[in-house]
Amino acid sequence: MAKKKFYVVWKGKKTGVFSSWNTCKKQIDGFAGAQYKSFASKEEAEKAIKGNYEDYKGKDTKKIKLSEAELKKIGKPIVPSISVDAACSGNPGKMEYRGVETHSGSQLFIQGPFEKGTNNIGEFLALVHGLGYLKQKKIDLPIYSDSRIAISWVKKGQCQTNLQITDENKPLFELVKRAEKWLKENTYSTPVLKWETKAWGEIPADFGRK
User: Which candidate, 137, 134, 153, 136, places its Cα nearest to that of 191?
Assistant: First the structure.
């Protein structure tokens, strides 16, 4: 179920905070220079209407902020550890992935770009690469990913993508097969953990292209 949003209209037929997109849309349709934006909570929206549109223009206001109690419950990320992430331009599109030290952001490995890939495949490969890296180096550290899908694929030992193999992405799928083979033939004690983006911000391995 989609989370409820609240809409602020600074300039429109009527200004104020609105609880539905349809109501907001009526205020801005046909209004030259309309200024409006959505917010994750009524409190944030009511605060925003007292300010200026320029203060919020271009900013991500759709994320729900966690309470102090929620932040305390989640805690802080474990360090030292490593973090992995992927970036994909298009779906499918050019994809690359990398791993970094969580505390410093120092890059440990990077692969790609690969043609006609997906972000989920990249996240999966990044995790397996990270697991292999830690095992080869005999480093006992946890590994973070912000992708629940990739974590579940790793636990199942299979990349369950629906992407079709083509001549362009054949090298990528060969890498996927190698990753699946590694998971089948190797054991590891590395904790594979979910990066809590809402509490900690973007994962350190993020490519910064959002």
Answer: 134
What is residue 137's three-state secondary structure? helix
The CATH class of the 74-200 domain is: alpha beta
List, for residues 88-102, the tens digit of each pLDDT value: 988 899 999 999 999
C-alpha to C-alpha distance for 134 and 172, rounded to whole angstroms? 22
pLDDT tier for residue 63 given thresholds of 50, 70 and 90: low
The Cα–Cα gap between 147 and 33 comes to 39
What is the residue extent of each domain of the chain? 6-65, 74-200
Answer for the pair 36, 10: CB distance below 8 angstroms, yes or no.
yes
Q: Do the annotations mark residue 29 as ligand-binding?
A: no
DSSP 146-172: S-HHHHHHHHHTS----PPP-TTTHHH
Does 123 carry a binding-site annotation? yes
CATH fold group of domain 6-65: Ribonuclease HI; Chain A (3.40.970)
Say whether pTM exceeds 0.85: no
DSSP strands (E only) in 69-117: 82-90, 93-101, 107-117
Report the C-alpha gap between 199 and 210 in whole angstroms.
Answer: 18
* CA distance linking residue 71 with residue 85, whole number of Å: 23
167 labeled part of a ligand binding site: no
Binding site annotation covers 85? yes
